[in-house]
Design a protein that fits this description.
The chain is an alpha/beta fold. The chain has 15 helices and 14 strands. α6 packs parallel to α7. The chain is globular and about 60 Å long.
Length: about 375
Amino acid sequence: MSYSLIEKLIPSYPRTLLPYYLPTAAACRSFAERLKTGFTLKKTMRQIQFREALREALSEEMRRDPRVFLMGEEVAQYNGAYKVSQGMLDEFGPERVIDTPIAELGFAGIGVGAAANGLIPVIEFMTFNFSLVAIDQVINSAAKLYSMSGGQYSCPIVFRGPTGNAGMLSSQHSQNFENWYANTPGLKVVVPSNPYDAKGLLKSAIRDPDPVIFMESELMYGDKGEVPEEEYLLEIGKANVVRQGKHVTLVSFGKMMKIAYTAADELAKEGIEAEVIDLRSVRPIDYDTLIASVKKTNRMVVIEEAWPLASISSELSYIVQRRAFDFLDAPVIRITCADVPLPYAPTLIEASLPNVARVVKAVKEVTYAKA
């Protein structure tokens, strides 16, 4: 790297000081040897909220690439319905942080057109329940653009916003459409469960040449977790084994991971060691990681907030029983929402959604333990 290029990148450093900031050949060789022996760079971690992790991902990508812009209802003047875009209007201006009318079909279509013409839109739905108004643009335009143009047009667009229930919001604001979108070739569907994953996956989604559905949880925006100060990316389509175990595999994604963690803790008190896997994305699905785990534990329970028919858990159950049948000591069990529109009453909501008790009961069933 030449001094002139370094001076452009670091204009405040005098030429006389540049040798002190440039690595020597010996230093590079030493660093390479340390990498071979297992040395890794230590990241600076801090506790931030889920919404802050998303904001950092958006802001960093908008600074990195001027083609990236954010558009949706209340993303600008109001700082975002859930304060994800707080302060971004001041930094990037109204041409890149754009408030829209309540017209999801319209601004989703504008986003698809912008993506086809070389920009990288991030379209925020106030909730994915409202994405149904725009589903024609998402599925018939964004998902199919590359295929129907014979590869002449790509569609680098991210549709993001909250999914699932958020308390007493009743049926029309409490639905899970991860399996709907995952059923569509041409889309990638990401559902993070914590701030670290949210930031790394959103940055990858924005850089992806294909349309990505990025589904968050309204109930998780205030959750805190460790996130590095340094830049990082997470691969879309790679599951994360967050807890090792040998008796049963628990699989989930999104906010249902909280149920999986708590259930694993409860089971551990009874001597049942659960291996917990966070899918992170439901299209593509990392089947190999699931199969490897089931070959070790011989049992699997899937936890999903959506309705049972044609769900992600249905797909996982089929694939595992198809590819690892000889390793299973019990049928796969899935825990889903009740097959009804989500009620309004809190007691009925509790009865409808997956919970720790249902997971523990299912695990005892597949391990043939006494309830």
